Amino acid sequence: MRIAVAAAGMLVALAAPSAAQRPALAMLGQLEAGRWELRNRDTGSVERLCLPDTRRLIQLRHPADSCERLVVDDGASEVTVQYTCRGRGYGRTHIRRETNRLVQIDSQGIADGLPFSFAAEARKVGDCAT
Fold first, then answer.
1. Does the pLDDT value for residue 22 go beyond 80?
2. What b/e string do you get for 50-72 counting C-beta neighbours within 10 Å, with b at 16 or more?
3. What are phi and psi of 111, to 5 degrees?
4. What does the pLDDT read at residue 45?
């Protein structure tokens, strides 16, 4: 009887923290969807993207690929995700939120057999054109 009670208590203790957890990558879900401007900090080049889902910021060098993701850090204002796209490469991206319209991105990896590494500031600049 004591063993059964102890086992039940352990199950409740283990289940309680998972019930209160927030969804994975919740910080990215708080960013505003729309037209974003990415300014490369090293080159100064600017790229504009339409982001209906801001989780796309994770895989900027593998945008259309279906990749396996491993969430390394999932904080309230920063996330780090490592991903692998079979046959296409891999990457590791760190995103730090300043506001829901401004983030800092550091990403590196291999895309199409070539290494990439960049640091960029991404800012929402408007809505996507239809």
1. no
2. ebeebbebbbbbbeeeebebeee
3. -130, 125
4. 96
State the Cα torsion 54-55-60-63 to the nearest 10°: -100
Q: How far apart are CA 66 and CA 90, in angstroms?
A: 11
Q: From 118, 120, 68, 119, select the one nearest 89 (Cα to Cα).
A: 68
94 vs 84: CA distance, rounded Å: 15
Does the pLDDT at position 101 exceed 90? Answer: yes
Token pair belonging to 129? 């054109």
**Average pLDDT for the chain:** 87
pLDDT higher than threshold 80 for residue 77? yes
Question: Given this model, what pLDDT does residue 14 score?
Answer: 44
Question: 0.85 exceeded by the pTM?
Answer: no
Q: Considering only CA atoms, which of 94, 88, 87 is closest in space to residue 117?
A: 94
Amino acid (one-letter) located at 44: G
How many Å apart are CA 95 and CA 19, to the nearest integer? 26
**C-alpha distances in angstroms, 104 versus 44, 56, 93, 122, 125?**
14, 14, 10, 6, 15
